[in-house]
Amino acid sequence: MSPPAELGVNPPLSVGVDVSSVDRVGRLVQRRPEFLTKYFTPEEADYCSGRPERLAARWAAKEAVRKVFGGLGWPIPLYSRIAVVRQPGGAPAVLVDGEPVEGLSISLTHDVGLGIAVAALSPLGRRSRWLWGSLPIDLQLPDRPPVSHKGTFGTVVVLAGSPEFPGAAVLCALGALRGGAGKVKALARGSEMDGAPPELIRIPVTTDGPSLNAGVLGQAGASLDSAQAIVCGPGLGESAATQELIGELFRLAETANWRLVLDADALNVCAAQEAIRRRIPPGSVLTPHPLEAARLAAVGVAEIQEDRGRSARALAQRLDVVLVLKGAGTVVAAPDGRSWIDSHATSALATGGTGDVLAGLIGAMLAQGLEPYQAARAAVFLHGEAGTRLAFLRGRAGILASEVAGALVDTQEAVRRQQEAANSSGAASA
After folding, report:
1. Residues 362-386: pLDDT tens digits?
2. Which of 39, 113, 134, 405 has its CA 20 to 30 A from that of 176?
3. Which domain holds residue 89?
4. pLDDT (tens digit per residue) in 299-309
């Protein structure tokens, strides 16, 4: 049996082996008939009726499964909660509480008066609580109280997309929705967002050109007022209309109660227009890749990449923002000097649209009440973990940004379960 796995590391393979005496199990059933009804399902009892060798093999299987769970540090299920079932073709499988355990395999046999079982589990499935990245001890996720409603988890408004890049707004919205925001809204014109999920609330606006402009903010006034986070930039373009839009957004932010997430074209506009750059609201979250960071800092990409941590901290302090310098080992830096480097590095995220998903996810973390630095850290970790998990399960090439968004549900739950397990262990040892 493998030793207990540490939290926050790549999951091990846990193996459990058990051997049971056929004669001993047979005698036990004769002396205590309730043994069957207490520890075996009616289907198991029926299949093993008059065949103590089958019963011994299944008892060994239950023991082996318990050893597997113990080897992973998981709560060990009661014997009565473990059932060996026959799949089509006769191969055995195991259910725990009536459900299959993803990644668990079982082999059982009987020979020379013994029932023998071998169980193995590598918890790599989508619903596994194991994580591929090293989970920071102080990583914060928003609270999810059971007594809640959609207003509990805040509203994100997305300012993104254009006729050329309509998917940018959809992917931002997906990141926010899968990140747990209670409501996600997006400014929409015509049929540009026909591919959006039905859960997205569209704010209808009209413009006199192909780009969103400053006038749409007035049309969306009530929605902006009710938001906790605004995500701006992906797919907007860098036209004069976009510049006016961002300038007006910064003006409204001076008296608003929401936080900004700036990505993609919003960053390029800020880099190109010093007057706009100087008005970036303090406490905003900026998410540049190295080229965008170089433009903001007015240096070369090589200088940014030479010391990514130093570059991120310097730009965060200079602009008075939380800066997310994307790439393998994404850096999150706060203007007060705090910084953190994510442990994930996967080519699965090297595809168009994954940055849009991350921007929306940061918006969701802000809308649910995390302060900007912690919101950025949580989103970056979840995003990297989702991409890494997909790369292992499906492959390093061909993962879609929308699939990364979809993987955020299981990834968040895995983080929460691991944090709860760590907290329970800490409380038990106190």
Report:
1. 999 999 999 999 999 999 999 999 9
2. 134
3. 14-121
4. 999 999 999 99
